[in-house]
Amino acid sequence: KTKIYKLFPVNSISNLEEFVKYTFGEIAEKRVKLYREYLSIRDEKYLTWAIYNVLHWQQSTPLRNTLHIHGDVDHVFPIKHIKNCISITNGTHAMIIYKAKLVRQIIVDSF
C-alpha cells in the first residue's frame, strides 16, 4: 500500500469554487452554489479523516435495515462495485442535490 492519498491537498477544497470555475468554465458556475452547500464541511482534519476511512473501509457484510440508494453514474463510488442497492438513473455522486425529490420519494415509499 502506497498511502499516496496522504499527498492529496485537502486544503484545496476550500477553494472549490475557483477550481470548478477554472476547470469547467462559466457553465459550471451555477452549480458551484449548490456544491458549496453540499460540501460545506471543509475542515482539513475532517477531510483527512474521511479520505482515510473511505480508502480503508472494511465493511464485509451489508448492514441490516439499511436502504442503499446509489447513482448509476457515480464516478466517486462506481456502481460496478456496489451490490444490493436501489439504482438511480443518471445519478451522480451529487444526486442528493439534483435528484432530491426522487431520493425522497424512494425513502418515503420504502417505509
What report would you give on this structure?
With 111 residues, the protein is mainly α. Helices cover 41% and strands 5% of the residues. The chain is built from five helices and two strands. The termini are far apart. The mean pLDDT is 80.
Distance between the termini: 42 Å
| Count of DSSP-assigned helices | 5
Q: What string, H for helix and E for strand, traces the elements in order?
A: HHHEEHH
Task: Give the class from helix and strand content and strand pairing.
Answer: mainly alpha
Number of DSSP-assigned strands: 2
Largest sheet: 2 strands, parallel
What is the percent of helical residues? 40-55%
Q: Please, what is the average pLDDT?
A: 80
Poorly predicted parts? none
* Dominant shape: globular
Fraction in beta strands: 5-15%
Strand order of the largest sheet: 1-2
Radius of gyration based on Cα positions:
16 Å
How is the topology of this model organized?
Elements: H1 16-24, H2 29-38, H3 44-55, E1 69-71, E2 86-88, H4 95-98, H5 100-110
Parallel strand pairs: 1-2
Helix pairs in contact: 1-2
Compose a concise summary of this entry.
This protein has 111 residues and is mainly alpha-helical.
